[in-house]
Specification:
alpha+beta, Translation Initiation Factor Eif1, two-stranded antiparallel sheet
């Protein structure tokens, strides 16, 4: 398959002789988001690769990126901090492990502390 580019976000195809060819974008196979009761999230403190700054790391989320973003925004808002949510993990600036565990468990998630 070709690369995507251009304003139509289509695959780079100049011409096709295939009468059944479809210019649709590539299909992304995102995972279906599991309900909170079936997820086990690991909450830890991390300083690696962060210039010595402490972050709260939430790993183990199973689901699509939109639901991960929504959960990340909710946690950032409730903790009053910045952070990011991508690649199945949520990063919050600072040490908010206890608060995050309480918030996640209140929403029905199973949590486990990872490390110390």
């Amino acid at each position: 398959m070709g690369k995507r580019s251009g304003k139509n976000n289509r695959i780079d195809v100049v011409y096709s002789t295939d009468p059944d060819f479809n210019y649709d974008e590539e299909q992304h196979n995102e995972e279906e988001t599991l309900p909170p009761s079936k997820q086990k999230l690991y909450v830890s403190l991390d300083r690696k690769m962060r210039k010595g700054k402490t972050v709260t790391l939430i790993e183990g989320f199973t689901g699509n990126s939109d639901d991960l973003e929504t959960l990340g925004k909710s946690l950032k808002s409730k903790c009053g901090v910045g952070g990011s949510a991508k690649d199945g993990e949520i990063i919050l600036q600072g040490d908010h492990r206890e608060q995050v565990i309480r918030l996640l468990e209140a929403d029905g998630y199973t949590t486990k502390r990872k490390g110390s």
